[in-house]
Amino acid sequence: MKYFNKLLQIFLTALKLGFTSFGGPIAHLSYFHDEYVTKKKWISAHAYADLVALCQFLPGPASSQVGMAIGLSRGGILGAILSWIGFTLPSALILILFGLGLSTIDITNHKHWLHGLKVVAVAVVAQAILGMGKKLCPDKERLTVSILTSVILLFFSSAILQITLLVISGLIGVYFLKSKEDLPHDSIHNGKKSIGFLFLILFFVLLFLLPVLRNFVNLTEVQYVDSFYRAGALVFGGGHVVLPLLQAEVVPTGWVSNDLFMAGYGMSNAIPGPLFAFSSFLGAVSTANPNGWTGAIVCLVAAFLPSFLLIIGALPFWEQMRKNKWIRKAMLGINASVVGILLAAFYNPVWTSAVFSPKDFALVIVGFLLLEFWKLPSWLVVIATVAVSFFVYL
């Protein structure tokens, strides 16, 4: 009964985040930090930053992988699955229903409150960066690493460069950074390496086997799984990077028209939850799929499966590595660099896609005031800001 209650808590917490986490991957990490680190204290700030750093190295949607890992640490593999379902379910349902009823919906008529959602995400991200910066950049050396990371990414932004900067920052941590006290170490997951190794093997087996199987089995579902699994397995740099990969899979094949593709992409940016949920929309509207719900679920699971296999497979090895003295020193620099990555993303795309006028900025600072100083819950600030923005922008 105790285990069941723990699983229920994992699911309900993720479900709440799935309904309230607007603003894209960086904002999701901010909402996660507020919920899992600050409020529930399921994971420490240092362990959370370590986890974010790991997910920056792995392909797939980083925010979803962080949620899976926290669910895993609380309730095992079933906890990871429930965490993913809870966080993904709201956006997937919205996109499936949107796809099935596209002819009767016009999202352009709701631009006022949609813009309000983007604005409040700026305040949420700002609060999270400030909180993480205080803990992970407490001295001038680490603050310098963070700022330099941010500056470089603002000049030259790419997923490969992010990974390179994390590696360089780790080396700086090993050779130049010193902590006045031992770096806090909080276990993320104590799973067996043998289980992790099996999940990593399964990841690569599916990656290479599915294209072969597609040539021999003439089933639409197999084609879906191959296309969406490959897209999810080869994405570095966040959810937006998966879009050209998905477009190359579904538009030239005639599964989805380019107009439908762009309409779904626009909607996926206006709702809470992971951008990878866009795959459910594509499955729902695909011309090769007679049953919209079946195709949507197959495509959704296939797109997320690589990230699930990777995070479950990598965590036991990562947990063992974090106990090493040199790795822990490297994490001083890597954690500072993670703050810099978030800071660069705070400007683009979070700020640049939301703040266009003094009214926008006014809503941002009020939202930040309510979150940081009045300590109001993020979901309440989201609702209040959207309600006010409707009248402000009208």
Automatic annotation (TrEMBL):
The keyword Transmembrane applies. It is found in: Cell membrane. It holds the Pfam family Chromate_transp. InterPro entries: Chr_Tranpt_l_chain (IPR014047), Chromate_transpt (IPR003370). Keywords: Cell membrane, Membrane, Transmembrane, Transmembrane helix. The chain crosses the membrane at residues 77-101, 113-132, 152-177, 197-216, 228-248, 260-281, 293-318, 330-349, 361-393. Its main location: membrane. One of its GO terms (cellular component) is plasma membrane. One of its GO terms (molecular function) is chromate transmembrane transporter activity. It is a multi-pass membrane protein. NCBIfam families: 2A51. Belongs to the chromate ion transporter (CHR) (TC 2.A.51) family. This is Chromate efflux transporter. It comes from Leptospira kemamanensis.
